[in-house]
Design a protein that fits this description.
The chain contains 3 helices and 7 strands. By secondary structure, it is mainly beta. The chain has a 6-stranded antiparallel β-barrel. The longest helix is centred in the first third of the chain and has 8 residues, at about 25-35. Strand 2 (about 35-45) and strand 3 form a beta hairpin. The chain has helices at about 25-35, 70-75, 115-125, and strands at about 20-25, 35-45, 50-60, 60-65, 85-95, 100-115, 140-155. Helix content is about 15%, strand content about 50%.
Length: about 160
């Protein structure tokens, strides 16, 4: 065997089972992302697509995270119209590179800046903390409108 050959039975090797791509239902998607962790927020700003990592929790059926006042998730995502929100995408995945298996969940929904005292107090109860350094005083919620996901595994 050459150093670049893949042994039989390993993912992608001779005799390996072909991967199966499975569409996930919304409830399963929510179950997968409900422990919280790190996800990515995707949106368009004036220069084009932007994707930023955030650590998040699921709180009251929404995705909740903290960020810096005046940062891209603050300045670029304010409509200036009361009650109008930008629609963003939020993605979380778990990939096992050794076995070539994993899942990916995509959530689309309105991004809401938590500004009222009542909302801020409720968000603070979630316990979400930013892993990034510096001041992260702005709470942001994404209210899911569409949830989809896929899982890839070997049969």
């Amino acid at each position: 065997m050459t150093e670049h050959a893949t042994p039989a039975g390993t993912p992608g090797g001779p005799g390996a089972a072909l991967p199966k791509l499975e569409k996930l239902e919304g409830d399963e998607c929510l179950r997968l992302i409900s422990p919280g962790g790190v996800g990515r927020v995707a949106f368009n700003d004036y220069t084009g697509p932007v994707i930023l990592p955030v650590n998040y929790v699921i709180h009251d059926g929404t995705i909740l995270f903290r960020t810096a006042l005046g940062g891209p998730l603050d300045q670029e995502l304010r409509t200036g119209v009361e009650g109008a929100e930008f629609i963003v995408a939020f993605e979380v995945d778990h990939i096992d590179e050794a076995t070539h298996q994993g899942w990916s969940v995509l959530v689309r929904g309105g991004l809401h800046h938590v500004v009222s005292s009542e909302e801020r107090a409720e968000a603070a109860e979630s316990g979400v903390e930013s892993w990034a350094g510096g001041e992260r005083e702005l709470y942001i919620r994404i209210a899911p409108v569409e949830i989809s996901g896929r899982r890839i595994q070997h049969a």
